[in-house]
Amino acid sequence: MKSVKGNLLIAQSGGPTSVINASAYGAIKEFLSLGSGHKVYAGVYGIQGILEKRIIDIDTLNKNTIETLKYMPSSAFGSCRYKLKDYDENEEEYEKIINIFKKFNITYFLYIGGNDSMDTANKLSIYMNKIGYDANIIGVPKTIDNDLVETDHCPGFGSAAKYVTNIGIEIWSDINAYKKESIMIMEVMGRDAGWIAASTGILKSVIPDINQLIYLPEISFDKDKFLIDVEKAIKKNNKLLIVVSEGIKDENGEYINANKNEIDSFGHKQLGGAGRHLQNLIKENITKNVKLIELGVTQRCAIHCASKTDIEESEIVGRDSVKYVLAGYSGYMTALERSSNDKYNCVTKLVKLQDVCKRVKNVPLNWINEQKNSVKDAMIDYIQPLILGEINPFNENGLVKYTDINFFR
Amino acid sequence: MKSVKGNLLIAQSGGPTSVINASAYGAIKEFLSLGSGHKVYAGVYGIQGILEKRIIDIDTLNKNTIETLKYMPSSAFGSCRYKLKDYDENEEEYEKIINIFKKFNITYFLYIGGNDSMDTANKLSIYMNKIGYDANIIGVPKTIDNDLVETDHCPGFGSAAKYVTNIGIEIWSDINAYKKESIMIMEVMGRDAGWIAASTGILKSVIPDINQLIYLPEISFDKDKFLIDVEKAIKKNNKLLIVVSEGIKDENGEYINANKNEIDSFGHKQLGGAGRHLQNLIKENITKNVKLIELGVTQRCAIHCASKTDIEESEIVGRDSVKYVLAGYSGYMTALERSSNDKYNCVTKLVKLQDVCKRVKNVPLNWINEQKNSVKDAMIDYIQPLILGEINPFNENGLVKYTDINFFR
Fold this sequence. Notes:
The structure is a homodimer.
Chain A: E1 7-12, H1 20-33, E2 40-43, H2 46-51, E3 55-57, H3 63-68, H4 91-103, E4 106-113, H5 115-131, E5 136-141, H6 157-175, E6 182-188, H7 195-199, H8 203-206, E7 212-215, H9 223-236, E8 239-245, H10 274-285, E9 290-294, H11 298-301, H12 308-326, E10 332-338, E11 346-352, H13 353-356, H14 377-383
Parallel strand pairs in A: 1-2, 1-4, 4-5, 5-10, 6-8, 6-9, 7-8
Antiparallel strand pairs in A: 2-3, 10-11
């Protein structure tokens, strides 16, 4: 490792997860463990806050408070949905960032986030290189959607999958309480890729006779085929669990029942309504005995049902990102590489940010069954190790440990 | 205790909970531990299944399977929403039941359920008494809504409250991720009483500066006051958590945004839409930055976040119900009596079924704050002991233990 040339800046971006703070924790602990005399700073509210000089010095935080980061949901240092424009469109922003880096003697920057955040990290890295400013930038992956390419999986996904699959088992038990027909639609997150919905394929490994249909954005949604699927399924068993990604699209690539007028500040269409649309289809064509549950933000913050594997990997990704950035790498993302499923082991590796950003990793089509309404064993083998292990997040009052998020800002 | 004169029948009714099977478990284990040579039967799908002679002999179940009952959500023996009519309206049904009792030599009957189920148990008990049939009937309370009178609280409520309060903490963390204004509405169950929503008052004991509003069915919903509450709250802090019972009503007692055409088979109006209504009010009058989460059935089946206290009490209520029914009591419900909050202890006592059925226990008005949008410390003191303790419901595969519900039917 080269000698430490300056201070480290970390920041968080995009949607929170249960474990994004575990990566920040890993990075902070790793850097401070070196005793280089240099500082760790955190940008408050991601790149947007950095542009507003909202920088805090980790040394000013209580040490016990830092320890709580490892098991704390949400983005402790604050997040944003803010994309840097290309530098030839708005060089002023880049200059602002350079000035802040200079002011705080920042020579290392870790940006923790998803696809759009990797794009920002990539642009910054290219700009720094172009103008010859000596700072190394590494992207740290985070997304419950699991849709970053060049990595086996993304920190955050395992915990979301663990929560959703467990809720799935519980709901299957619940809809079997009564004798009467009961269809439950569970809408889960997944804007572009169906990983979370696909993860519930693991239910059949514990409930071999489960009556379940899974619909993913990877497959164009066909209303007529859907109704045939449902009719066939409830003939077999009058209890049925339907899992659907919020991001399913029709043959023209239009979101199913998306509200086309609302977009978020990244310019993405605001989803919601895929599950409701399916419920209406069933009500109008098959039966009234169909309920809907939209799991919403609980998927990205349910620390009470987090995957221990996910938390530990998130911390390692944070720690290794510090090692990589100090070793002089820049313009990379710290990815996860799985050795095998049988004896699961994951290590980190570097992949180029330019190969990651603006691309989406979908559920492989050959992991989806022929009827396009469930997943094959390959998906189950993939997900099983990622949801392993539990933490004990509870205090003696029966509630999950809570740290005031303002302590970090 | 008198000598055991015949067999025990147990059955489950109404909405499932995470712990209704723990009561069945307690009853079965207690009766069999006596070694009387008499049998335990279970009615499949409650009184409706009993009328169809769907009776299973617990001896035919695998012993390990019985052990899984203690930590199994949903109604293992099947539930129903079926109310017995008065016997002068439909004596035939009562005669059917008597014939089944005779056929299986049933002299003890425990009916596990909520308000409507206590009514059924009461009617049966009165009828048996009238015709001089020697069977003792006891109601075993169960409802996440916590709205049975004459008992300190109801088995099932503690686990629902534990899940909802923990999700509340996690969602509060989540909505604080971004800098921008963020209002989250969390709709929880509670048709007639607001106990589940009120339980989230405990959030302020761990998040002293939480910005939270709570709306209960106990207080007529006033749209104008609601909008003033919200405007005032977001001036103080642009993050706001609003918790609302599905059963809030207007000044005329009409459900807010209820779909008046849909009723369930108990004749209750099908709710849903209170949270959506509040969201629309805020969108139309204050801000677009408002999201909704409807926790739905997860509240009654999330065994992964069950209260250990609740599970243990549910088992005790089942065990003590056997003791009471064998001692010759009939026409009673086994209630819970709390000694004190400081050193929480709960024991069972008997209360008359006729004093329980057709009544609703509401959140006391003097536990609600003056502004009618939150709860006082008395509510927090009440809820705290009920959510204490955790179980480990997970298998080594990272998923909650699952028993095929068909094993019990």
